[in-house]
Recover the amino acids of this structure.
């Protein structure tokens, strides 16, 4: 069975011609990380094999994903099955995750660290190679930006994406989020505008919803997934909580 593709990736794919090159590469890596073959990705977005291969060189598929590809493509073909040339990257990821476990365990008494992990656990993207958080509350997004710069990269760069409903004032929304985020001349992707009559909420948010994405975040994503596991484990079973 072909992996389910999250709606936000399909929304981005629908805007392919309007995406910047770096946005296209991020989308290509995210689709590959789901366990899609190059052919399955190319059925969604028009990208040449060579370009897709270059974008996906840091993506390491799991054994389960590789087995699923073999089942979809047939037992007598290697089409879509990655060659065993990513061992170096796999070792890098294992090192990153091992260091992340130590870091998280030594920061469990840091409320800002734990709070940021919980925020991302609840609201952040779980698709590999993406590190972004979507919210309608500017305070939550500012907290995410601060947390990333405190614990991951003090020089982290961010890009903003707006999700609006038809009828929202896009220039006003951009000005609102630009002022609210506190970023110097923030970059915006093409705004996604949901058409009327799609059955969603009737009381539209005046300035829509904003997504903050961290650039060059594949390593950060691996760290945060480990941090979430450590923080979750530290909470203990619910049975231990007093009623």
């Amino acid at each position: 069975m072909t992996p389910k593709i999250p709606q936000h990736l399909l929304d981005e794919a629908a805007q392919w011609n309007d995406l910047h090159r770096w946005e296209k590469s991020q989308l290509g890596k995210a689709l590959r990380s789901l366990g899609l073959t190059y052919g399955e990705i190319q059925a969604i977005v028009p990208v040449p094999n060579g370009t897709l291969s270059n974008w996906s060189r840091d993506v390491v598929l799991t054994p389960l994903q590789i087995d699923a590809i073999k089942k979809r493509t047939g037992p007598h073909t290697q089409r879509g099955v990655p060659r065993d040339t990513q061992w170096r990257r796999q070792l890098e990821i294992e090192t990153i995750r091992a260091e992340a476990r130590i870091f998280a365990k030594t920061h469990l008494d840091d409320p800002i660290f734990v709070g940021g992990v919980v925020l991302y656990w609840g609201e952040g993207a779980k698709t590999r190679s993406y590190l972004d958080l979507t919210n309608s509350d500017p305070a939550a997004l500012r907290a995410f930006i601060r947390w990333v710069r405190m614990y991951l990269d003090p020089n982290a760069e961010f890009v903003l994406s707006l999700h609006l409903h038809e009828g929202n004032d896009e220039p006003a929304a951009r000005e609102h989020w630009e002022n609210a985020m506190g970023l110097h001349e923030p970059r915006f992707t093409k705004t996604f505008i949901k058409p009327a009559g799609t059955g969603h909420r009737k009381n539209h948010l005046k300035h829509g919803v904003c997504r903050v994405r961290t650039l060059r975040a594949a390593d950060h994503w691996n760290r945060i997934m480990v941090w979430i596991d450590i923080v979750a484990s530290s909470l203990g079973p619910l049975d231990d909580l007093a009623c």
Notes: Residues 18 and 190 are 7 Å apart (CA to CA). Strands lie at 132-135, 158-165, 187-188, 192-194, 209-214.
